[in-house]
Amino acid sequence: MKHETIASTSSPCLLAERHRDIIWHEPASESHALLNGLSHCFGIHLDEVNADPDQHFVNELGRLFRKCQVEPETSLERHNRPWGNVYLIQHGVLRLFRESPAGKMAIHHFFSEGDLIWPVFGRSRTSRNTLCLTAVTPATLWVGDFSSFRAAVQARGNGAWEKFAIVLTEEVAELTSMREFRKQTMPAKERYRILLEDYPELIKRVPDNQLASWLGVEPATFSRLKKATNTG
């Protein structure tokens, strides 16, 4: 009996031939992540079909940003200098902190993917700025001039800037006050437990000494808490 030979074609061959049964999509533009991030921060749903005013606004904001890749411990904003930029994190972790003349660090907040960071407090926009912003991990950022960014949002009218600004202002104030409350009322062991439950990703990505500073304990204490948890 003569067997019929059946030719088979693998997926790579189909890809090479741009086979008609495969649906091809054009790759997203480099700024796609930026526009999506901005629209999320402003609560805007982008419609690829209808160019409505909201979409036009996001597109205009996007033109203010440039892409930047930085290494760990890259200083982005420093104390005693006006904070000049706004940052949207595409990938990575940044820390917001103050540092004493002796080099002692007090970490106030960590920011990660999707966060938009700008000088919330008026003093930070002057030479009296006491806040620092530094990369914790390798980071891909979108960076824009803060004054231009604020002017673009203000141009929308109807108190657009005030409505936008108060969200992050309240969030930072609430997190800061809650962390201070916990430092004053909770033992270190309980604060460490909350850290594990609420910020599991930070545990994996942020060095222990920085987490210790954020938690308000000495590095040696943090190491004991970590060891006790891992062996418990």
Please give a structural write-up.
The chain has helices at 11-17, 32-41, 53-62, 146-154, 160-185, 188-198, 200-205, 208-215, 219-231, and strands at residues 65-70, 75-77, 85-91, 94-99, 105-111, 116-117, 132-135, 139-145. Residues 1-16 and 22-28 have low confidence and may be disordered. The chain has a 4-stranded antiparallel sheet with strand order 1-8-3-6. A 4-stranded antiparallel sheet has the order 2-7-4-5. The protein contains 9 helices and 8 strands.
Concise description?
This protein is of the alpha+beta class and 232 residues long. The protein contains nine helices and eight strands. The relative contact order is 0.12.
Give a topology summary:
Elements: H1 11-17, H2 32-41, H3 53-62, E1 65-70, E2 75-77, E3 85-91, E4 94-99, E5 105-111, E6 116-117, E7 132-135, E8 139-145, H4 146-154, H5 160-185, H6 188-198, H7 200-205, H8 208-215, H9 219-231
Antiparallel strand pairs: 1-8, 2-7, 3-6, 3-8, 4-5, 4-7
